[in-house]
Write a structure and sequence with these properties.
One of its GO terms (molecular function) is metal ion binding. The active site is at residue 246. The protein is of the alpha/beta class. It contains 15 helices and 23 strands. It is globular, with a radius of gyration of 23 Å.
């Protein structure tokens, strides 16, 4: 079987490889992907540093053309790349193709942004002096991405980094190297100069740690767990490095008495269980006022009975497998914790056998939960959600905000008053009204508050805040 190698200084390299296993069928090896060393990582950093002076001063049309080519090829290959994504991560094929299309749109957007780079010319408070304010590339950027969105998250970090003239050392999650390799291959063939984009696949303890230890990275953009994010932050202080961290979530979905029940159920089911609940924006706390509580629980239970858990590529599958055995154990451990804490298992919670061996788990719904239970405080990152009964809107808002996280927050209501108040007072970076908490646009900012995020926002024009540094120049007339 061919080994998909790392890309360092424009050359494909690497003999040591690991198997990429399909979570829908653990007998299938998706591919063999290189596992980089500390030396590989340092070589990649050196290559990016050497390439930075020329790339940072490259023309905006050159950047535009390369990013546009990449976006066009991703779109043209959306079915192929979507199938690869579904095979290596377990997301259903329609979701995987949708994520691939989003990656293409991200490259298309930043291809346009490359032509819209601008600054300011302002008068000085002193006579005969002009002031220019410009944005310049930050330098060598370390990019570390998670396994749950293996093509979209790399896209929304790589595209702006290149758009604004930075060079890159990219380490994808060990579980899902395939989509990352494909993106890098596409960009390499689109005409990126050698060393501008370097891919080092491998273990976080080796590749990731070497990146953290390097004084030559001007910035690191990271998406992953809170624990690892803190390590990225602490290591970066020593090197005076700019950081952007997107971490966990324990997102609430509030359902009020006046909600349209069908809208509320669809939004909650999508938020909590689609993509196997493996989204940092997933709603794992369903906060329901008492007037609609029983009807909502009954309707949610009936909805869950209709959701088919099966192979990610099979037609009619609503929920694919959990990504791997370790995550599956985490999910089942939390299900047992919920039972011991006194929550009622209203639906699911059982492992499922299918035609192929895989990590299949029923969507799991707890009722009679409280906001103090571990299943309501800690991120599970699986198809597990808890219903928390509250008296009224005021209590619902208080419970929604009572969390160390603050990524996404949702409300189902027909009240303009409550919707407006919630948008203003929800302690989250993103707020959804009558929509799932998961599912965002590519051209607007993404990010949270509290333990969910640190640093400037991702995506849209706000990406410039991280990937550039501001310069103010004064000229005597």
């Amino acid at each position: 079987m061919t080994i998909y190698q790392n890309l360092i200084a424009g050359e494909w390299t690497g003999a040591d490889a690991v198997e990429n296993i399909n979570p829908s069928d653990t007998k299938e090896v998706v591919g063999l992907y290189a596992s980089g060393s500390a030396t590989d990582t340092n070589n990649a950093i050196a290559a990016a540093k050497a390439a930075f002076p020329a790339w940072s001063r490259s023309g905006i049309w050159e950047r535009h053309v390369i990013l546009k080519k990449a976006g066009d090829e991703i779109m043209a290959r959306k079915d192929e790349l979507g199938a690869l994504l579904a095979r290596e991560e377990g997301k259903t094929l329609p979701e995987a193709i949708g994520e691939t299309i989003r990656a293409s749109q991200i490259f298309e957007f930043f291809a346009g942004e490359a032509l819209r780079l601008a600054g300011e010319v302002v008068p000085s408070v002193r006579p005969n002096i002009g002031v220019e304010i410009t944005r310049e590339p930050l330098g060598v950027i370390g990019i570390i991405t998670p396994w749950n969105f293996p093509i979209a998250i790399p896209a929304w970090k790589i595209a702006p980094a290149l758009c604004y003239g930075n060079t890159i050392v990219f380490k994808p999650a060990e579980l899902v190297p395939g989509c990352s390799w494909a993106i890098v291959d596409i960009l390499n063939r689109a005409g990126l100069p050698k060393g501008v984009l370097n891919l080092v696949m491998g273990k976080g303890s080796i590749v990731g740690q070497t990146m953290l230890d390097s004084p030559d990275l001007a910035g690191i953009t990271f998406t992953g767990s809170v624990g690892t994010g803190k390590r990225v932050a602490l290591s970066s202080i020593e090197h005076n490095r700019k950081i952007q961290l997107e971490m966990g979530g324990k997102n609430p979905m509030v359902i009020l008495d006046d909600a349209d029940l069908s809208v509320a159920v669809e939004a909650a089911a999508n938020s909590a269980f689609f993509s196997t609940g493996q989204r940092c924006t997933a709603s794992s706390r369903l906060i329901v006022t008492e007037g609609i509580h029983d009807r909502f629980v009954q309707a949610m239970t009936e909805k869950l009975k209709t959701l088919n858990v099966d192979h990610a590529l099979k037609t009619g599958t609503h929920i694919g497998p959990v990504v791997d055995e370790r995550q599956l154990k985490t999910d089942t451990d939390y299900i047992e914790i919920g039972k011991k804490e006194g929550a009622k298992l209203a639906f699911g919670g059982e492992l499922i056998s299918r035609d192929t061996p895989g990590f299949y788990l029923q969507p799991t719904l707890f009722t009679e939960a409280t906001n103090q239970m571990r299943i309501s405080r800690e991120e599970i990152f699986g198809p597990v959600a808890s219903v928390i009964r509250v008296k009224d809107y005021e209590e619902a808002l208080s419970v929604a905000n009572d969390t160390p996280f603050g990524l996404s927050s949702g409300i189902a209501t027909t009240s303009l008053k409550h919707a407006t108040h919630f948008k203003r007072n929800a302690e989250a970076g993103m707020v959804m009204v009558n929509l799932p908490t998961a599912g965002v646009d590519f051209h607007v900012p993404f990010g949270g508050r509290k333990a969910s995020s640190y640093g400037s926002r991702e995506q849209g024009k706000y990406a410039a805040e991280f990937f550039t540094t501001v310069k103010t120049a004064y000229t005597l007339a």
